[in-house]
Amino acid sequence: MLALRLTFTLLLVRLCGARPSSHARRDLRVHAYRNVVPAGFADVGPASPDQTLTLRLALAQSDPKGLIDALYRVSDPASPTYRHWLSKEQVAQFVAPKAEAAEAVNAWLEENGLSATSSSAAGDWISFQVPVNKANELFGAEYNVYVHQESGTQVVRTLSYSLPASLQPHIDLVHPTISFPDIKLESSTTQAKRFIDDVPERLIKPAHANSTVCSQGTTPACVQELYNIPAAPVRNNVTLGVSVFYGNEPHYAYLTTFLENYRTDVDASKTNYTFVGWDGGVDTQNPFATAEGDLDIQYTVGVATGAYVTSYQEGGNVTDGVSGFLDEALFLNALDDSELPQVLSTSYAHFENNWDFDVTDKICQAYAQLGARGSTLVFATGDAGAGCDFITNTTDFGPNFPASCPYITAVGGTSGYYPEVGWTGSSGGFSNYFARPWYQDTAVSAYLDKISGTDPNAGRYNASGRGFPDLALKADNYTVYDAGYWLHVFGTSASCPVFASMITLLNDRLISAGKPTVGFLNPWLYSEGSKVFTDVTAGSSSIRCSDDDPLRVLNATEGWDPVTGLGTPDFDRLLDAFGLCSSVSN
Ligand SMILES: *[C@@H]1O[C@H](CO)[C@@H](O)[C@H](O)[C@H]1NC(C)=O
Ligand SMILES: *[C@@H]1O[C@H](CO)[C@@H](O)[C@H](O)[C@H]1NC(C)=O
Ligand SMILES: *[C@@H]1O[C@H](CO)[C@@H](O)[C@H](O)[C@H]1NC(C)=O
Ligand SMILES: *[C@@H]1O[C@H](CO)[C@@H](O)[C@H](O)[C@H]1NC(C)=O
Ligand SMILES: *[C@@H]1O[C@H](CO)[C@@H](O)[C@H](O)[C@H]1NC(C)=O
Ligand SMILES: *[C@@H]1O[C@H](CO)[C@@H](O)[C@H](O)[C@H]1NC(C)=O
Ligand SMILES: *[C@@H]1O[C@H](CO)[C@@H](O)[C@H](O)[C@H]1NC(C)=O
Ligand SMILES: *[C@@H]1O[C@H](CO)[C@@H](O)[C@H](O)[C@H]1NC(C)=O
């Protein structure tokens, strides 16, 4: 997992009025601010007054709560409309801006000689261009240039912004303002090197899948055996998307070599994935891209046999200030229902508190929109156990987003086999931004009750937050082919595509049986699903954040735990749970 580990050390505060900026006009109200410049960035003075900024503005939506209710109505097994997915148009009715919000904001922009264009399918995001001096005046802001010292990257940001009081109910946020971007601290090639350094050995001669399964490294045959995943190809055109960020693109030729060695039962010359770019994404087949893209494609195409796998690749036009996560979500929400992937696997995460709550919440809600339309979103939790809080530098845990979003399924890691135990890197814990969702009440409360009174970590995490991961799969020793080498790769980055592939194969069986696909899994997972997962009860995650930091240990336990969630999946038991007969062969 290429978790974005940033060195932001700042206090990020959500605002409730107060603290007017020095530029504020009488009717401006501070909407959000940061106390200090994020660590790693230096303020090099005011931005040029006539530099053009492209700002995005999120308008108040028609019925944001209604969207979440609608998501649960289609994903809760107890609901009469379970798995009756909404259409793109139905979702848009909830998230389209309130008419009065659009009117008021447009009138205000016009008054100020600005014109906006819609930048999301439902029209809830608009963008407009404005010179720095005008933006400072309109938003009581102080747009300065901040240089990221290590990389030299320059960004124009303000530490505070305001909205006219009359517009405050109509605008959820203005962006980019106080959220600083994740900087690619490492180039692709140094990341590739890191992967190789992580690997205990290179496989010069690949072991064949039929030699002792799993003892030769984690391969498609190994995960097929562990989780009862069928090798037979799908019968329907089931779709599985893979998110590709930071230029970590996969390669066609490496996939072919991988399949020729580890899926000798499929015709590698006829097995492929499809490229789709967003934000100007181009398929360059850059041979120096890291192993992440190849891992993600080799363990989707190589496990979800015959599925239609799409690599959704970021391009050079990412200007969302949050590493492309916002843009990818908006891109997917703009796809027609027939183009929306039934399952999306994303092997990226970043420290939750690095981005402003408002932006993080919008991205999480964009995932809820996709879930309401029937897409199963699966995210890796990260590889740093309980995580480090780089904002406070305290011994507080550092939860990861998007794993912490309650509207996605978060996949942690195990290691070994027969039995699997919690993987030492498996990221998990509790969100500081998102409250525990209702579907977790029983499972997560049981865990908290169990450790209550004896928890050595008490006070280091927000026990009322959304707990993660939801489940876990093997995360160690995956065999991947990349740039001429066989690598052994570790991480929840590997667990995530394998689980996404299992859901894709389950979707295929459901479609054959005339049933709807699984969609947003969590309400099912924590009710009926909890009975069919294999509980992982041994092993622990651990991380030390600095030399004098106490080791942060979390244990896998009976029932849900923040290392392995509810446990590991089993394909036959998934079939049974969805009312399909596991003895029927494909
Ligand atoms: C946090 O710790 C790092 C490394 O020890 C240090 O460089 C940084 O200044 C600290 N930040 C804060 C806010 O204390
Ligand atoms: C094991 O793999 C080798 C090499 O691919 C193959 O020749 C052999 O037939 C396989 N044996 C079994 C039992 O599948
Ligand atoms: C990884 O797999 C190799 C065989 O390919 C094996 O020798 C090694 O012990 C495995 N390492 C771990 C940590 O499982
Ligand atoms: C997969 O698709 C790419 C792009 O169209 C193509 O260059 C490559 O040869 C294909 N590989 C196989 C095995 O079909
Ligand atoms: C980025 O967007 C601009 C303006 O739309 C376009 O001209 C340019 O080709 C794009 N760049 C890439 C890499 O797609
Ligand atoms: C399968 O679905 C994808 C995505 O909707 C579509 O582009 C493709 O043409 C379909 N393939 C077949 C064989 O129908
Ligand atoms: C703890 O989580 C709750 C629920 O998400 C949130 O309202 C609260 O602000 C969080 N507290 C801290 C200190 O992060
Ligand atoms: C984890 O288990 C060990 C050994 O049983 C125990 O000493 C430790 O307190 C446990 N840690 C937590 C966080 O429960």
From TrEMBL:
Gene Ontology molecular function: any one: tripeptidyl-peptidase activity
Active-site annotation: 292 (charge relay system), 296 (charge relay system), 493 (charge relay system)
Cellular-component GO terms for this entry: extracellular region
Keywords from the UniProt entry: Calcium, Hydrolase, Metal-binding, Protease, Serine protease, Signal, Zymogen
Binding of Ca(2+), residues: 535-536, 559, 561
Cofactors required: Ca(2+)
Cofactor binding note from Swiss-Prot or TrEMBL: Binds 1 Ca(2+) ion per subunit.
Domain Peptidase S53: 217-581
Residues making up the signal peptide according to the UniProt record: 1-18
Subcellular localization, as worded in the UniProt entry: Secreted, Extracellular space
InterPro entries noted in UniProt: Peptidase_S8/S53_dom_sf, S53_propep, Sedolisin_dom, Tripeptidyl-peptidase_I
TM ranges: none
PROSITE patterns, sorted: SEDOLISIN (PS51695)
Protein name per Swiss-Prot or TrEMBL: Family S53 protease-like protein
Native source species: Polyporus arcularius HHB13444
